[in-house]
Amino acid sequence: MVNRRKFLKTSSLAGASFLAGSSYAGTNNHFSAPRLGNPIVISTWDFGIAANAAAWNVLKNNGRALDAVEKGVHVPEADPINQSVGLGGFPDRDGIVTLDACIMDELGNCGSVAALQNILHPISVARLVMEKTPHVMLVGDGALQFALQQGFKEVNLLTPQSEKDWKEWLKKSEYTPKINIENSFRPDKMPGNKFNHDTIGMLAIDAKGNLSGACTTSGMAFKMHGRVGDSPIIGAGLFVDNEIGAATSTGVGEEVIRNVGSFLVVELMRQGYAPEDACKEAVMRIIKKKPETAKAIQVGFLAINKQGKYGAYAIQKGFSFAVCDDANQELLIMGKSYY
Ligand code: ASP
Question: CATH assignment of 2-8+18-334?
Fold first, then answer.
């Protein structure tokens, strides 16, 4: 069961209403015509609504999908209230905010940064890794050095609130990834948002029918210093194949990496799976391999095919994603848990 909240394209989020039980599964046939002249952007979680609006400004002016996803994810990256992406993200267990991000274009080019500190927009550094280096991925100090060489300025990403939450966490220092862990901290600070959660993965098709994707996160709250999740790993947190479609993921990154999740979703779409069915099959692989682990975690996939049909699936209920095209701006929320 999926809940659907529609938003006026031109308005703020106020006045949203619920429509229950809509289905958003699309059929896939990659031999049918690609989506042309009718852009679309989709992204994970509630904060995808605001991010999509920024991406839409690029797409509606016939901009490139790559520019749209970069501009779109800048919004949560710069939002200090959001504690799972960029500025204000929860730090690691040593109190250091480290960011993971990747980006991929319609030509199969990709760039990525991992464990990057003190940079507001890791997605833009990832794009420059793609465009200005012979490499795909830079990590840690090397990624920071590159960012500074490219003109980025260092900023303190640890907000007073996230520092306070970290100090609270330190009292017990229990490191057990929990489902929707961020939700337990400050739901009051995210009006209208039940979940202050998680990675933003964004996928877009531009007017030319080209696909791109971006994925950016501060990673699991209070992770080990140096831990890198799925989000900056091409094929795990994000994959784009301009012939077939694109996919992205959120949730416990270790399980996504183990199953090369986003690549799997795209390959399943290549075999003819509808986007939602492909996401479901990827989730089922995780559940099948580790049923006991899967019970206690959240992993969600979001996918779009070349025709612009989209779908999602997650282990647990509560996974939401935002969709924006010429006709609609809406948020879809999974109301059903696998368990
Ligand atoms: N996938 C991210 C990670 O494992 C976190 C998340 O989406 O909740 O770092």
Answer: 3.60.20.30
